[in-house]
Amino acid sequence: MTTSIDGLSRRTAMGAVLTAGAGLAFAATQAAAADEGSHSGMDHAAMMGPAKHQALIDKALVCVNRGEVCVNHCIAMLSMGDTSMKECLASVLAMLPMCNGLAKLAALDAPRLKEFAKVCMDTCADCEKECRKHEAKHEVCKACAESCAACIKDCKALLDA
C-alpha cells in the first residue's frame, strides 16, 4: 500500500523531486558552459590565479585567526576575574571586523582599498599595542601582536605602492 500526500503517492512525489533536481543540475551545467564562452579573449588561468593582493589577504586572515584565539583567551581570563585583559579584548574585537573587511576588499582589488587599509593599519596598531602589554605572560597575545605587526607592514607596502 502506498501512502498518500495530498493525493500524490510517495513514489510520484519522489519522482517529481528527482526530475526537478536533474533539471536544475542540467540548467546549471548549461549556464556554466555558456559562461565559459562569455569571457572571450580572457585567460582563464589568469582569472582563477592568486589575487593581486594575496599577501595582504593572507596577513589579514592570520590576524583574524589569531585574534579569535586571543578573544577566547581574554574571555577566559576575564571570567576568572582578571580584568587586566579588558582593553586587550576591546582592541582585538575592533581589529577583527577591520581585518575581515581588509581581506575582502583586497580580494576584490576594491577602489577604496588603500583608504580602508590606512584605517585598518591604525586599528591593527592599537591592537598590537594592547597585546604587547601581555605578550611576556600570554603566548596568544604575542601571536596576535605579531600578526598585527605583519598586517601593518603589508598595509604600509600597499599605501606606498
Query: What are the secondary-structure elements, in order, as H or E?
Result: EEHHHHHH
Oligomer: single chain
The coarse silhouette is: elongated
Q: What is the helix content?
A: over 70%
Separate helix tally: 6
Low-confidence stretches are 1-6, 12-29
Strand content: under 5%
Strand order of the largest sheet: 1-2
How do the helices and strands line up, and which of them pair or pack?
Layout lengths: L3 E2 L2 E2 H28 L6 H5 L5 H26 L6 H23 L4 H20 L6 H22 L1
Antiparallel strand pairs: 1-2
Helix pairs in contact: 3-4, 3-6, 4-5, 5-6
Written overview of the protein:
Strands 1-2 form a two-stranded antiparallel ribbon. β1 (4-5) and β2 (8-9) form a beta hairpin. α3 (54-79) runs antiparallel to α4, α4 (86-108) runs antiparallel to α5 (113-132) and α5 (113-132) packs antiparallel against α6 (139-160). The chain has 2 domains: 4-41; 50-160, Substrate Binding Domain Of Dnak, Chain:A, Domain 2. It is mainly α. The relative contact order is 0.12. The protein has helices at residues 10-37, 44-48, 54-79, 86-108, 113-132, 139-160; strands spanning 4-5, 8-9.
Provide tags for this entry.
single chain; 161 residues; Substrate Binding Domain Of Dnak, Chain:A, Domain 2
Compact description:
With 161 residues, the chain is mainly alpha-helical. The protein has helices at 10-37, 44-48, 54-79, 86-108, 113-132, 139-160; strands at residues 4-5, 8-9. The protein has six helices and two strands; from the N terminus they run ββαααααα.
